[in-house]
Design goal:
Blueprint lengths: L1 H24 L1 E4 L5 E4 L6 E3 L2 H9 L6 E3 L17 E2 L2 E2 L1 H6 L4 E5 L5 H9 L4 E4 L4 H15 L2 H22 L5 E8 L4 E2 L5 H8 L2 E3 L13 H7 L3 E4 L20 H4 L3 E3 L12 H18 L1
Parallel strand pairs: 3-4, 3-7, 7-8, 9-11, 9-12, 12-13
Antiparallel strand pairs: 1-2, 5-6, 9-10
Helix pairs in contact: 5-6, 6-10
């Protein structure tokens, strides 16, 4: 009898100790909807529902814990071999659930809201991200690193990102403004409005986005509206890593300052349109291009 009591007492102590360790290992962070995402232990099986979030997870040291991604999650290269759970805007919930994630990283304005709600109804823990600007990248590195238990790596990556960002801000803060047109696509003619990462990068470089007053994401504009604003530089992205041929169609408009001074440039879209640490590489390229305009004047 005494031995039984001793056994159960010991079991109780071990149980308390185990709970204590779980609590000590608990991971929690607020997402971009203000929800406190709590895990009893750092996530071991993570699914990312946006290519940019996949990149941030890897940069935060959590790449080995990512078990599923959406289409176009192509960086870093090892992400290409991971199981695909659909497109960012058309998730395959059956495939996603089969991967048994303990954490799903969702994109608020990109993933279908109904799908996010359904994942929560099914008992999955979902962290919702909505990157807005360059500073958001540093913040998500820390928060996702916390949830993945890779806080040391994530904090170092975040600190490095912030240092490089501040260096760029200091370097270009007082430069002469340069009227900048960023072209996402040609037919229809699509640009970047004032509430996008691209606008943030243009401003960082001391440029002035000629369509900054537009609040819509990827707004359509007319050739006439571009001509009337007379950009000093035109920067195109396109869909892949090669300079799009349609960028040179602007040469027909010889009245444009950007054309007269041969200031038509290209930056790969992944470096300008994804909220990831690589956005600083895109910023460095764009800043140098905008600076070349000042050197011409």
């Amino acid at each position: 009898m005494k031995s039984s009591i001793a056994y159960f007492a010991l079991a109780g102590i071990l149980s308390l100790g185990s709970s204590g360790y779980q609590h000590a290992d608990a991971a929690e962070a607020y997402d971009d909807e203000g929800t406190l995402v709590s895990l009893t232990a750092p996530a071991m099986r993570i699914i990312s529902l946006a290519p940019s979030l996949t990149e941030i997870l890897y940069a935060a040291g959590a790449g080995s814990k990512v078990v599923g991604v959406v289409e176009f999650s192509d960086y870093p290269p090892e992400a290409r071999s991971l199981p695909v759970v659909g497109r960012y805007d058309a998730l395959d919930l059956e495939t996603l659930l089969a991967l048994q994630p303990d954490l799903v990283i969702a994109w608020r304005s990109g993933n279908p809201r109904a799908a996010i709600n359904r994942l929560r109804e099914l008992g999955l823990t979902v962290y919702v991200a909505e990157p807005q600007d360059l500073d958001t990248v540093a913040s998500h590195l820390v928060r996702l690193g916390t949830l993945a238990g890779t806080g040391t790596v994530a904090s170092a990556a975040s600190a490095s990102f912030r240092r490089q960002l501040q260096d760029l801000r200091t370097r270009y803060a007082r430069r002469e403004p340069v009227r900048t047109f960023y072209q996402v696509w040609n037919r229809p003619l699509i640009t970047a409005g004032g509430k996008e990462l691209i606008n943030d990068i243009i401003s960082l470089c001391g440029g002035t986005n000629i369509f900054r007053e537009l609040s819509r994401v990827a707004p359509k504009v007319s050739v006439e509206s571009v001509l009337s604003r007379d950009p000093q530089i035109i920067v195109a992205s396109g869909m892949d890593q090669e300079r799009p041929e349609w960028l040179d169609s602007w040469r027909d408009w010889t009245e444009l300052s950007a054309v007269r001074n041969d200031k038509l440039f290209f930056v790969p879209p992944d470096l300008m349109q994804r909220h990831t640490p690589r956005a600083l590489e895109g910023a460095q390229r764009l800043c140098a291009q905008i600076e070349s305009v000042r050197e011409t004047n």
